[in-house]
Amino acid sequence: MIEYEPLHQFVELTRTLHFGRAARACHVSPSALSRSVQRLESQLGEQLFEREHHKVTLTPAGEQFRRHALVVLDDWHRYEQERAQHHGELNGTLHVYCTVTAAQSIVPDLLGRLRRAHPDIRIELQTGYSSDAIDQLGSGEIDASIAALPAHVPAGIASREITTTPVVVVAPKVEGPVRDLVARRRIDWSSVPLVLPAHGLARDYADDWLDRRDITPNVYAEIEGHEAILALVALGCGVGVVPELVLEKSALRDRITELPVKPPLRPFHIALCVRERSLANPLIHALWNV
What we know:
The chain is α/β, with parallel strands linked by helices. It has twelve helices and twelve strands. It has helices spanning 4-16, 19-26, 30-44, 60-86, 100-105, 107-117, 133-138, 177-182, 201-212, 226-234, 244-249, 282-288, and strands spanning 49-52, 55-58, 92-98, 121-127, 144-148, 157-165, 167-172, 193-197, 218-223, 239-243, 256-259, 268-275. The strands form three sheets. It has a five-stranded mixed sheet. Strands 9-8-10-7-11 form a five-stranded mixed sheet. It has a two-stranded antiparallel sheet with strand order 1-2. Strand 8, helix 9 (201-212) and strand 9 form a beta-alpha-beta unit. Helix 1 crosses helix 3 (30-44). It is elongated and about 70 Å long. The protein starts with a helix and ends with a helix. The model has no long low-confidence stretch (mean pLDDT 88).
């Protein structure tokens, strides 16, 4: 019979793909973690990880076992939390994913209420690109995500809207060719260099806006991360497209101006997202209800 702690260690290693970081997170030595994984592989009769030149990757058998382990641990954590809830307590760890902007603007209020209601809950916050927010949930590596909702939310994902923010077009204040182009009475958008998101919802909205106006874009750069887009705009490289919330929280906001455009781009609907089957977990249920 497989114990829960080796399963937890295995799942942590699938998150990090690094024995040192996973061992620190599990409060064991790297050698102890390695022995735990080897015992699992021996019990299962299959290799779960490829290890070569300090690089760790999941094997197909490891990916299949990861899905099983997540279900088993979800059930175990649910049982633990239900028992704790019965005794008037709620504790454990929530893994939450969001952008840096959301961490600064949304998380303190949302998770602050959760912490005040349940001070024993431990929160692990991971930040990254907004375009990855829902994908992180789908992989099972994150318990909850703060994400801009697409038109069609993937099957199995539950969402609860937190706020709405416009998606805006921004230009540099610094003197130069770009500022001269957008200062004209009638802007020739096909000649304006654009700094666009490489992919994601903001890119979809920008492409839709350009298509509706029959504009062939002059793309200066396609960038991962809205904060990086603002940096290039502030330098005078081009005109960018970002959520207004990112602009409001940016240290560069005084070096950038918002351009009024018609029709406006579609707004972001920002929501708390979780896996539907995880709502039975008392920890996630508590977060859902704050």
